[in-house]
Amino acid sequence: MPVPDLSIIIVNYKTPQLILNCLASVHTFTQGITFEVIIVDNQSADDSQRIIQTAYSDVRWFQMGYNSGFARANNYGIRKAEAPLFLLLNSDTLLIDNALANSVRVLHDQPDVAAVSAMQLKADRQPRPNLYTTFGQMRRAFYILPSGEASERFLLRLLPDPHYTDPNQVEWLSGAFLMTRKTVVARAGLMDESFFMYGEDVEWGYRLGKQGRLLLLRDTHFIHLEYGSSEDNQQHLVTHINRFKPQIQVSQLLWVRKQYGIGAYLVLILHYILMVPIVYAGKIAINLRNGHPLFGELKNQRAFTKQVTIFLQFFWKTLFNRPGFYKV
What we know:
transmembrane
């Protein structure tokens, strides 16, 4: 069998229908290149393999034997990939144009480019708002300061963004759709397997970016439904002080420690610890002003305290950057 142009790697965790829809879109819109599909299963313990391989018999299926998360499963797929290029593709994605061939062409035509991705759209094909493309954007989101332009200007001065001549160039690319070369990964290394989920593509982007430019192709698109295998994400109430799920927070803190060192990590930890009494005092003051029970309506503050307690369980392990499995 000839070597395909591209290996498509999809991690499955109980999402057979999403993958069927994804693969249908891949076959519908992909033209001009050959590809193989590798699915790495995180112990779904269901009929995913039978359902998907009945529809697509050429899919190469591998079992991890446990819920290994995103980085470990994708690394396994990368090791099994036969093509010189590979694409990490989420199960909850849909192609709407020839995104794969467009991305392959960029990597072939521009050898100084290390990796590419495409623009994310919502199910209604509107652009996804507030997608991070720089490390500064991500780090600024970690800090809980009063809303307003003054806070935004302060954080931007503290954690500025880079400026590139190419409007497509970014600092990191989403692992929902990330195409690169085997030769690039041979130099940069695989994804860090201490991450269970979230943050691993940000840390990897730092290392991939050392091998060449990272491009977010503004004229190439895909739909990202998001959270296809997460049963609890839609139940997570996003507020100003509770912006992230505990697993996201643990992974983000791990990324900051790995990329920016002990000082940056400790500053964030101290920030969150100091915020616990502040958010309670602020809410109590509001209750007092509005004539409400002094200790009423503190659900949001309790959730924040619980989240801080969860990621503090990983404090020493993260502080010393110990290898492990940072799963909440």
